[in-house]
Amino acid sequence: MPKTNIRTLAKQLGLSQGTVSKALKDSYEISAATKERVMALARKLNYVPNAYASSLRKQKSKTIALVLPEVADSFFSVAINGIESVAQKKGYHVLIYLTHENFAKEKAILNELKSGRVDGVLVSVARETKHPNHISALQTNGVPVVLFDRVLADTITAEVCTNDFECGYIATKHLIERGCRKIAYLSISKNLSIVNERLEGYKKAIREYELPPDKDLLITCNNSEGHNHAAIKKSLSSKNRPDGILASVEKLIITTYHVCKALHLEIPANVKVAGFSILPSAAILSPPVTTISQPAFEIGEAAAALLFKILEKKDHGPENTKIILPSALIIRGST
Amino acid sequence: MPKTNIRTLAKQLGLSQGTVSKALKDSYEISAATKERVMALARKLNYVPNAYASSLRKQKSKTIALVLPEVADSFFSVAINGIESVAQKKGYHVLIYLTHENFAKEKAILNELKSGRVDGVLVSVARETKHPNHISALQTNGVPVVLFDRVLADTITAEVCTNDFECGYIATKHLIERGCRKIAYLSISKNLSIVNERLEGYKKAIREYELPPDKDLLITCNNSEGHNHAAIKKSLSSKNRPDGILASVEKLIITTYHVCKALHLEIPANVKVAGFSILPSAAILSPPVTTISQPAFEIGEAAAALLFKILEKKDHGPENTKIILPSALIIRGST
DNA sequence: TTTATTTACGAAACCGTTTTCGTAATAGTA
DNA sequence: TACTATTACGAAAACGGTTTCGTAAATAAA
User: Fold this and answer.
1) What is the pLDDT of residue A315?
2) Bases of chain C with protein Cβ within 7 A
C-alpha cells in the first residue's frame, strides 16, 4: 500500500530526490557510500520506479508495438517468439494488437500509437490494406515502422519478408514436374503482397511450362471457413477439376485436406497438394504434406533487430532496408 | 515534427491548457462553442494525447499484461485472440511477455510489473513455477492477477481453467474401454497444475478399472524435443511397451506420432493415442487423433473478462472467483 | 435592487521521474 | 597562501496531461 517512490526514499535517507535518482542510476556524481545507502533502502522497500513517469520525462517508452492480423496462423505464433526474444534481450516491452484483417482497425491502432506509447512499431498488414498512408502518417510522427512478412508494394519502409515470388515459382514447378497440368492457386486476398508475389511465381511457372492459364484455377478465399470449404469443394467437384493445388496459406491446406476427404479424392493420386506453412504436424498428416516453409522465428527476429537498429540509429538510413530470408520447399507425400 | 500537445492547442486558441483538457473530455464545465473550437483544432492538427502523461496523472494505465510460457502451443495462440478481443472492446492495451517456462524470468517480469505500467495481469504459469509468492507480491502491490489454464494449487487468486481432472479421467477411461491395458501418460512437468490434474484423472480411471499401476508408464517430458522423442521411443520399444498413450499437451502428440512412424507401430492397431490439443489439423492426421479439446478462445475471453470485472470492482470479491470451462473429448481414428 | 446561483474559464498543483545548473566543501596546484 | 579543480549533493525546472479550487460574469431568485 505505501507505494514507495523516489520521494519516500529521499525523505527516509535525508537526501534530495535528484540525488536518489542519480544514485539509483549509478551516476558518477554520487559517492559510493551514498549509492550503497540508496540501493540498500531501495532493495529493502522493493522500490520499482514508475515506468510512465520515467518515459514521460525521457520521451522514451522502451516499448514497441506489434500489429498483426491474427494469431491464428502458426506463422505469427512463431514470429511472436522471435520478436519477443529480441525485445526481451534489449529490455523492451511489447504491446500486441490484432487487426482481425480489418483495415479500419489497423488504421485506428496505428493512429493511437502516435501517443508516445511506443518507440517503434512492427506491422504485418491486414488483408484489406491497400495503401500505406496510415503507416507513413505514423512515421511522420517520428515513430519508426518495420513491416514484416505481409509488406506493402512501393513503400519506403523497412521490411523483412521471405522470397515469396521465387517460392511460388518453385512450388508450382515442383507440382508440374510431378505431372500436374491443372494447378489451382488458393489465394486469400486480391491485394496482399505475399499472396500476389506467390501468385506471380505461380504464373511464371505456368508460362514457362506452357500450360494453359485458366482463371477458374485462381480461387479467392477469405476469412470464412465455410466459404473456403465451399469454394474448394466446388472446384474439386467440377468435371474439369484441378490435379494440383497450391495453397497460399496454412489454413487452406487443412481445408483442402478436409475437402479431399469429403470428396474421396486421394492425395496425391487424384490431386497433389502443396502449401505455404510451418505446421509442425505437416509431416504426420495423411499423407504428409509438401510445404514451403518460412523461417518464421528468424523473420520475427530480423524484423525486431532491424527496428532496434533504426531506434539506435547505428547505421545510416536503415529506414529503407529490405531484408529477404529464404523459405524452403519440403517435399513430402502429398505431391 | 511540431508535436502538438495540449499547450500548443491552448496557445493557438487563446485558452488555458486546463480548459482545453476539459473541452477534449467533453466536460460539463465548458461551453458548447468552446468545445467545438477545441475539437476542430485538435482534429485539424491531428492531436493525439500523450498516453503516459495521462496515465501518470490518473494513475491508470489502460493496459494489462499477458504473461505466457510460450506461443508455441496452439492453445495459447487461440487464447491470445480471446484475450485481445475483450481488451480491445474495453479500450485496453495488451503487453505480452514470454517466460520460456523459466521461473526466474517469470518472477522478474512480474516484479517489473509493479512499476505502474499495467492495471492488471493475466498469467499462465511456467512449467518450473511451484509457489505463488511472486504473484501475491504483485497483488500486494495493488495489481490484480488472474491465472488462466495453468493455475497454481491453493492460491487465493482468481482463476479460469478447464476441467482437467475430469478430462484426464474420461480420456483414460476411453482408452481402457477401447482395450488398452498399459496406458502411458506423457507429462511435461512434475508440478504443473493442469498436468497433475490430468494425471490424477488418469490414475482414478486406472484404479477404477483395476489396472496395475506402473511407474514406467509415467513419462516425464520437457522442453527438449530430442529428449521427448528419445523417452517416448524408449518406452514404445520396450518389450513391455504400452498399448495406449495419453499425451498431456499438444506437441507430445506430434512427437508420439513421429516415434510410432519411426518404429513402424500402427495407430490404433498397435498403440492407441489420445491427447490434450486443439490442433486444427487433428482430424486430418494419419490417423486422425482423438483429442481432449479445450475451449481456448473462451478461456482467454473469460480470463480477460474476469480481470476487467476485478478492475471495475463491480462484484464483491471477484478476486477469488474460480471459473471452469469444460473441454470435450473428440473421438477419432487413433483410438 | 440585492443576493444567490450557475456558467465558463484560468491558475496552479500534481503525478514520479530525469536532468540541468548552481554551489558548498574538499582536494590539488602554483 | 591563493587559486583552480574536483567531488557530492540540492534546488528546481522540465515531461504533458488532469484536477482542484477560485472567481468574474451572467443569470436567476427574492
Assistant:
1) 54
2) 7-21
Distance B8 CA to D17 C1' (A): 13
SS3 A160: strand
pLDDT for B286 equals 85
Whether domain B164-293 has CATH 3.40.50.2300: the reply is yes
- pLDDT tens column, A89-128: 999 999 999 999 999 999 999 999 999 999 999 999 999 9
What CA–CA distance (Å, rounded) separates A85 from A335?
36
What's the whole-number average pLDDT of chain B? 94
From the list A63, A112, A285, the residue facing B281 with the nearest CB is: A285
Q: Which CATH architecture has domain B59-162+296-325?
A: 3-Layer(aba) Sandwich (3.40)
* Candidates B77, B116, B257; nearest CB to A52: B116
* Numbers of helices and strands, H then E, in chain A: 12, 12
Question: What does DSSP say about strands B158-162 and A145-148: parallel, antiparallel, or unpaired?
Answer: unpaired
Asked if A95's CB is within 8 angstroms of B80's CB, the reply is: no
pLDDT of residue B154: 79
B130 CA: distance to closest CA in chain A (Å): 22
Domain assignments of chain B as residue spans, ordered by start: 6-49, 59-162+296-325, 164-293
- The mean-pLDDT minimum among A181-190, A204-213, B153-162 falls in B153-162
Q: How far is the CA of B277 from the C1' of D24 (A)?
A: 70
Asked if A59-162+296-325 and A164-293 have one fold, the answer is yes
Report pLDDT for A142. Answer: 92
Q: Which residues of B285-324 are buried (b: 16+ CB within 10 A; e: fewer)?
A: bbbbbbbbbbbbbbbbbbbbbbbbbbbeeeeeebbebebe
DSSP at B285? B
Query: Which H or E element spans position B67?
Result: strand B63-68
